[in-house]
Amino acid sequence: MMLYLALGFLFASAIVGWAADPAADLLAGRGRDCPGCNLAGANLKRFDLREADLAGANLAHANLHRARLAGANLAGANLTGANLNKIDLKRANLAGARLGEAMLYEADLSGADLSRADLSGAMMGSSHLTLAILEAANIADADLADARMLGAKLKGADLSRSDLSQTTLRRAVLTGAKLEAGGLVHADLKAADLSGAELRGADMMRADLTGANLSGADLKGARLLLANLTDAKLDGADLTATIMPDGTTHE
């Protein structure tokens, strides 16, 4: 009788120990939720983690290439240097997440919440950020060339020195955003709200600013050569030393 009890106790302990390791369960494909787990450097390529709870998890330098995380909770997660190329993060919660130097080439972040996230130095070429929320996010020195950011909310975001060439920012909200020395060559900014934005030294050559709101924007030393300013609002904008569409320099 005692032997059976001892064996039962050991079996129950093993079950409890097994259930108490959500990181191992996730890596083995037995579970998805792993808030606060240490998954640094983990290989999660093509994993299906839709709607998973990974809030506060450490995923630094993890491989999530082509992983599916639509609707997942990654608020406050550490994704520094992670491989997120071609990942599906539609509608995911990444508020306050750390994604510095992360690779997000062709990543789908449509409708995702990236407010206050750190994306400094991230490589996001050809990514999809339609209707994404990036308010107060740090996106300085990032590569966003050819990204699609229709209707994205970037109020107060820092995009200083970032490459936004050929990026689609139609109807995007960039009020008070920092775009100093940013590259916006051939960018589509139709009907975008850039009121109060800092665009000092920005290169906006051939950018389409049709109907854009640049009221109160700081455009000192910016290059607007061959840009389309049809119906754009420039009330109160600082155009000191700005190169205008016709090639003249504003005094």
Category from helices, strands and their pairing: little secondary structure
Helix content: under 10%
Percent strand equals: under 5%
Q: What composes the largest sheet?
A: none
Q: Rg to the nearest angstrom? A: 23 Å
Poorly predicted residue ranges: 1-18
Annotation field: number of helices: 2
Form type: elongated
Order of helices and strands: HH
Short description:
The chain contains two helices and no strands.
Walk me through what this model shows.
The protein is largely without helices or strands. It has a domain at 1-31. Helices cover 10% and strands 0% of the residues. The chain has helices at 2-19, 22-27. The chain is elongated and about 65 Å long. The termini are far apart. Residues 1-18 have low confidence and may be disordered.
What's the helix and strand layout?
Blueprint: H1 2-19, H2 22-27
Output the keywords.
single chain; disordered N terminus; little secondary structure; 251 residues; 0% strand; 10% helix
